[in-house]
């Protein structure tokens, strides 16, 4: 990467899961760059080695406290592949249902407590949920009600709020009952009603505002890179589809139904300044800060790769989004928030459809047919994007190698590339006045939060200063010798 000189850091980044910071550096060519550094190490890929393959779904569910079900389900798909088992229809539908509930829960949490404060309070010194709720208590009531109902629902369906024991090789641990589905339908009515209040607030207070229009038109939030996601017959798909990559103009670059072929297009680069790898578009090669090497995943990328959203209300909202911004490609990361709204609506509709499917109550819950192989790959759409588990096993069915590529890992390149657009402005302001402007810090905060990164998945960080808890970006100006010149 050449030689770089440290200019400043934004440490820590808050309102994201895990520990990360942004470091601003200048290279040999005097080009200013922003490095998004994930500061933690979890090591689950090594923890899996030597374990029996059947243990994997249970172990990996502990990777993340927010999307533990996503890791559990995708690991189950990889284990199915190792055993060459195809789950019965009842098991497949149960897994789909659980995944939609996971996406709905995660999206509502981010939308209400991170997305809305960031957008509705733009320009104010503090943009947190406490300040938003003081002004708009109805948002608090609606958001907290959805969380409460969904947590009770998760416990009802799988016995636990987190790390639920859903998957077994070739199926699920138990089938749902009529009582479960009756409970689900009642819960959906309550969640749908609460979300309507958040939805109205978003469109009235955010989408219709002049500030939102300026953000959507701003070049600093633009990222013209490759989008990746799953599709089924060209439509939005979260559980079991074909991997598709499209270029910034929407042209399909790659599409393959076999999960194991992801290695043809997704590479991982190691750098000495990050505890995370930097996945990149393999045919273009690894080029840091280059949009042609960058892959974006998550709600916004999923809407870029699909041709349609398969449920009625969500399809209408998708059309409303496209009309508002002039169509695809959706290349402004502020639109991640609106994309989550589309997927919240889609999840509500899809869960309602599944709850009426009689196959959820009939037939076997597990298949025992199939012969073991030495590799299994699972791909799923987690709330934050494409999630890949790739296991190699020995003859005794213990794990020899595990490769886990999370959505935030894939988006690592995108976040770095996005932030580097703003870095020169931040450095210029420090040189002129000794400190960056609140507007520049707001832009960098919002870029990171738009992706909803989950840096360590299960842990959280808050930096304790001498006299106070830092609840926003901490900007530190450092000399070449490492002396702290300014902190704020």
> How is the biggest beta sheet arranged?
5 strands, antiparallel
Query: What's the shape?
Result: globular
What are the low-pLDDT stretches, counting only 5+ consecutive residues below 50?
Answer: 11-15, 457-475
What share of residues are in beta strands? 15-25%
Features:
488 residues; alpha+beta; Cytochrome-c3 Hydrogenase, chain B; 5-stranded mixed β-sheet; 15 helices; 17 strands; 18% strand; globular
Could you describe the 3D structure shown?
- The chain has 488 residues and is of the alpha+beta class.
- The protein folds into two domains: 4-41 and 416-487, no CATH class; 44-368 and 403-410, Orthogonal Bundle (Cytochrome-c3 Hydrogenase, chain B).
- Helix content is 42%, strand content 18%.
- The chain has 15 helices and 17 strands.
- The strands form five sheets. The protein has a five-stranded antiparallel sheet. Strands 6, 7, 8, 9 and 12 form a five-stranded mixed sheet that branches. The chain has a three-stranded antiparallel sheet with strand order 13-14-15.
- The longest helix is centred in the N-terminal third of the chain and has 32 residues, at 89-120.
- The relative contact order is 0.20.
Topology:
Blueprint (H helix, E strand, L loop, with lengths): L3 E7 L9 E8 L4 E7 L5 H5 L7 H5 L7 H16 L5 H32 L8 H7 L1 H22 L8 E2 L2 E2 L5 H30 L2 H8 L8 E7 L2 E2 L5 E5 L5 E5 L9 E4 L8 E4 L13 E2 L2 H7 L6 H14 L10 H20 L19 E8 L2 E9 L5 E7 L1 H4 L1 H9 L2 H11 L4 H13 L24 E4 L5 E4 L1
Parallel strand pairs: 6-12
Antiparallel strand pairs: 1-2, 1-16, 2-3, 4-5, 6-7, 6-8, 8-9, 10-11, 13-14, 14-15, 16-17
Helix pairs in contact: 4-6, 4-7, 4-11, 5-6, 6-7, 7-11, 10-11
């Amino acid at each position: 990467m050449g030689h770089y000189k440290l200019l400043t850091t934004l440490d820590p980044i808050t309102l994201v899961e895990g520990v990360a910071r942004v470091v601003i550096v200048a290279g040999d060519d005097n080009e200013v760059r922003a490095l998004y550094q994930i500061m933690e190490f979890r090591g689950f890929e090594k923890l899996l080695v030597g374990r029996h393959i059947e243990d994997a779904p249970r172990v990996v569910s502990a990777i993340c406290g927010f999307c533990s079900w996503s890791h559990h389900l995708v690991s189950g798909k990889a284990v199915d592949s190792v055993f060459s088992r195809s789950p019965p229809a009842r098991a497949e539908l149960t897994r789909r249902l659980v995944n939609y509930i996971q996406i709905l829960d995660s999206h509502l949490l981010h939308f209400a407590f991170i997305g809305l404060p960031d957008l509705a309070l733009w320009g104010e010194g503090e943009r947190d949920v406490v300040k938003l709720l003081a002004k708009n208590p109805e948002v608090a009531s609606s958001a907290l009600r959805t969380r409460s109902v969904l947590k009770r629902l998760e416990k009802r369906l799988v016995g636990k709020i987190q790390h639920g024991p859903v998957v077994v090789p070739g199926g699920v641990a138990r089938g749902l009952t009529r009582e479960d589905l009756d409970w689900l339908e009642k819960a959906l009515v309550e969640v749908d009603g609460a979300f309507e209040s958040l939805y109205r607030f978003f469109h009235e207070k955010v989408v219709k505002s002049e500030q939102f229009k300026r953000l959507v038109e701003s070049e600093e939030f633009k990222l013209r890179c490759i989008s990746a996601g799953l599709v089924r017959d060209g439509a939005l798909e979260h559980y079991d589809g074909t991997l598709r990559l499209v270029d910034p103009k929407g042209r399909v670059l790659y599409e393959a139904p076999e999960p194991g072929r992801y290695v043809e297009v997704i590479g991982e680069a190691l750098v000495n300044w990050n505890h995370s790898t930097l996945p990149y578009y393999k045919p273009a090669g690894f080029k840091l800060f280059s949009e042609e090497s960058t892959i974006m995943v998550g709600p916004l990328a999923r809407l870029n790769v699909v041709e349609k959203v398969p449920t009625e209300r969500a399809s209408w909202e998708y059309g409303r989004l496209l009309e508002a911004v002039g169509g695809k490609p959706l290349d402004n990361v502020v639109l991640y928030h609106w994309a989550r709204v589309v997927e919240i609506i889609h999840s509500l509709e899809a869960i309602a459809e599944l709850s009426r499917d009689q196959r959820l109550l009939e037939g076997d819950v597990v298949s025992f047919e199939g012969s073991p192989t030495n590799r299994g790959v699972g791909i799923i759409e987690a709330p934050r994007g494409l999630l890949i588990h790739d296991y190699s096993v020995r003859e005794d069915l213990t794990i020899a190698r595990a490769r886990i590529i999370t959505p935030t890992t894939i988006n690592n390149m995108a976040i770095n590339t996005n932030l580097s657009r703003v870095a020169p402005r931040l450095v210029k302001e420090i040189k002129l006045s000794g400190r960056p402007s609140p507007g520049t810090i707001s832009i960098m905060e919002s870029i990171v939060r738009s992706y909803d990164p989950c840096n360590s998945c299960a842990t959280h960080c808050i930096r304790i200063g001498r006299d106070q808890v830092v609840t926003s970006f901490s900007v530190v100006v450092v000399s070449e010798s490492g002396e702290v010149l300014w902190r704020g």
